[in-house]
Write a structure and sequence with these properties.
The complex is a heterodimer of chains A (262) and B (338). With 262 residues, chain A is of the alpha/beta class. Helix content of chain A is 34%, strand content 24%. The relative contact order of chain A is 0.17. Helix content of chain B is 78%, strand content 0%. Classes of the chains: A alpha/beta (262), B mainly alpha (338). At the A-B interface, strand 6 and helix 4 of A face helix 11 and helix 12 of B. The complex binds adenosine-5'-triphosphate and magnesium ion.
């Protein structure tokens, strides 16, 4: 059924709702509050970027969305249903690529299909994903033979083969050199437009957030709460030199308290 | 693999590597080794034995040394034309040392009689044992190998599954861990009197003991391997829709494999120790039993022969395990070589 919908509508991502989500960790017996009443509504097929200082709780928030942890307070819903456990419709690209060192790149990318028993029927997707991230020639290489950026691209391919409804990206391009990074940003936009999934991206890079996202959510220092939400309605494909983006950039930096250097 | 060895050995100028060209190096090294074996052969054949001694295989031993010497000389010359023989160059320092050792041994035993008999027989006495008593020795090797293989595989399999169970399941950990803590450190041989009494045959008792000696390190290392798996590996698999079964079989076990192999190596070492003790004290077959029997008859040459074969058996099995590891864990870099 999902496949049938997919053929009719290019937009088939899911909606995501965060209701008053708070979370804390225990650090040597002391409670460490990390998230402070975060409420967020992400529409079907929307691309939302999260920006915030290091250690404020962005990765923690993404783990909650993925269903890997449950929040201390509040609830998270995907398509109106509570998120209780990980599900292959929500795929995460972690901050650290963490490929399985005992598997070749091809077998790493195949992981999701294999786990769901789809490898036999859908193995063609693996080639497509590898081509998309430019790793066709490295299908049989082991992770230790890859550079940091290549490993990160392989991790991206490992997520994309699963055709997610919600793609959760935790600084997926952080380790790439600036040239590859620009290329991959463009690829990500066109992929998102083609596949129509909902995307939630964490990044440190204000330009990247503005180039990719339709909305930028600025988080405060830990414990993170939402400081501002900036809509970015510029049509795709965007141009990096767009003066409107430069204005938005200034606004975002002001929310982060970094506009003095601008 | 040999390419790696070559790369390692080249910059170190091992052996006769100080000579510039590989062909020259191979020729000089090979001829030196051949000369040493000729010396050993000549010394054995032409230097009369100490009076009152009577070694049956002196001529055969000398002939064997001479044959090896001829073969080495031939290989050294062949190395000029065929690079295959140049590979032998790596071995020639060892071959030379071995020949000198045998010659010295021959001199201080059969020729000069400096070492007391019967504790230190000359090399030809060991050749004599291997030729005259090969039937019993071969039967001993077979019996030992059979016992060792049965016990080792049983122990490794049970240990591996127990280790995965403790590493994975809290319940299994709760019940098995204390037992392991309490009984595991006890040397398997401590169970020997009890085992021979409880089990129907000395063979089954020894299998149990060897399995116990193998199983403990395999269990502990498999367990620590599974427990130490990077938790992000599980997170990734879980977000991609992995079942518990997939997490165990495709994530936990492959990630723990390097640890498992450390356990297997330790287990194999333990199993040798238990094997020999069990054969000496209970089983009426095998190399350990032969060793004990030879000592009872003061047949020291037989003892040396059995020891030599035992060393070949053990190091052969360790080598086999290393090969298996290199094959299964080829994704790892910087493997320790044997
Ligand atoms: N498992 C944990 N146990 C205890 N504290 C944790 C745990 N995970 C994260 N923290 C703490 O929570 C805070 C937020 O961590 P998080 O990884 O979410 O930050 P982040 O915003 O992703 O930072 P960065 O941008 O540097 O990746 C940090 O102070 C960290 O020390
Ligand atoms: Mg983070």
């Amino acid at each position: 059924m999902v496949a049938a919908i997919a053929d009719d509508h290019p937009v088939r991502g899911s909606t995501l709702t965060l209701r008053e989500v708070s979370h804390r960790f225990d650090l040597e017996g002391q409670p460490l509050p990390v998230l402070d009443r975060i409420s967020l509504q992400v529409g079907r097929g929307e691309f939302v970027a999260l920006l915030g200082p290091s250690g404020c709780g962005k990765s923690t928030l993404l783990r909650l969305v993925a269903g890997l942890d449950t929040p201390a307070v509040g609830s998270l819903l995907m398509d109106g249903r509570e998120i209780e456990a990980p599900d292959p419709s929500r795929v995460v690209v972690f901050q650290d690529p963490t490929l399985y060192p005992w598997r070749t790149v091809w077998r790493n990318v195949a992981l999701g299909l294999e786990a769901r028993g789809l490898l036999r029927t859908h193995s063609g997707r693996i080639e497509d994903a590898l081509r998309l991230v430019g790793l066709t020639g490295f299908a049989n290489a082991y992770p230790r033979q890859l550079s940091g950026g290549m490993a990160q691209r392989a991790a991206l391919a490992r997520a994309l083969v699963n055709d997610p409804k919600l793609l959760i990206l935790d600084e997926p391009l952080g380790q790439l050199d600036s040239l590859t990074r620009i290329t991959m940003q463009g690829e990500l936009v066109s992929l998102w437009q083609r596949a129509g999934f909902t995307a939630l991206l964490v990044t440190h890079d204000v330009e990247e957030a503005l180039f990719l996202a339709g909305r930028v959510v600025v988080l405060s220092q830990r414990p993170a709460h939402i400081k501002a939400e900036i809509a970015n309605t510029r049509p795709y494909p965007r141009r990096r030199g767009d003066p409107h983006l430069a204005e938005l950039r200034h606004e975002v930096l002001a929310h982060l308290g970094l506009d003095a250097t601008w | 693999m040999s390419a790696v060895i070559d790369e390692v050995s080249r910059p170190q100028k091992s052996g006769f590597g100080v000579f510039a060209r590989p062909a020259t190096r191979s020729l000089i090294g090979g001829l030196a080794a051949a000369a040493a074996w000729f010396v050993a052969a000549a010394l054995t054949a032409f230097w009369p034995d100490k009076i009152e001694s009577d070694w049956a295989y002196t001529g055969n031993f000398a002939a064997a040394c001479a044959t090896l010497a001829f073969a080495l000389a031939f290989a050294a010359f062949a190395g000029i034309r065929f690079t295959v023989f140049q590979r032998l160059q790596r071995l020639s320092p060892w071959l030379l040392a071995l020949a000198l050792f045998l010659a010295a041994w021959e001199a201080v035993t059969a020729k000069l009689g400096l070492l007391p008999l019967p504790f230190f027989p000359p090399p030809q006495a060991i050749v004599e044992v291997i030729i005259d008593d090969w039937g019993r020795l071969a039967a001993g090797i077979l019996a030992s190998a059979r016992l060792l293989a049965t016990g080792f595989f049983l122990g490794a399999a049970v240990g591996f599954m127990t280790g995965v169970a403790i590493g994975w399941s809290r319940l299994a950990g709760y019940w098995i861990h204390p037992v392991l803590r309490f009984i595991g450190p006890l040397p398997a041989t401590a169970w020997l009197p009890l085992a021979f009494f409880v089990f129907p045959s000395s063979f089954s008792a020894s299998v149990f003991l060897i399995a116990l000696g193998t199983g403990f390190p395999v269990t502990v290392l498999t367990w620590s391997g599974v427990a130490g798996v990077n938790s992000t590996y599980y997170d990734i698999a879980r977000t991609l829709g992995a079942t518990q079964r997939f997490l165990v079989l495709k994530v936990a076990i492959p990630a723990a494999m390097p640890h498992v192999f450390v356990g297997l190596f330790m287990g194999l070492g333990n199993s040798f120790a238990v094997l020999v003790v069990a054969e000496m004290l209970g089983v009426k077959a095998g190399l350990g039993w032969y060793l004990q029997w030879a000592q009872g008859w003061a047949a020291y040459a037989n003892m040396y022969a059995a020891l030599l074969l035992m060393a070949f058996l053990c190091s052969g099995l360790i080598t086999l395990l290393f090969r298996l590891r290199d094959r299964l864990l080829s994704w790892q870099k910087g493997l320790v070589r044997w």
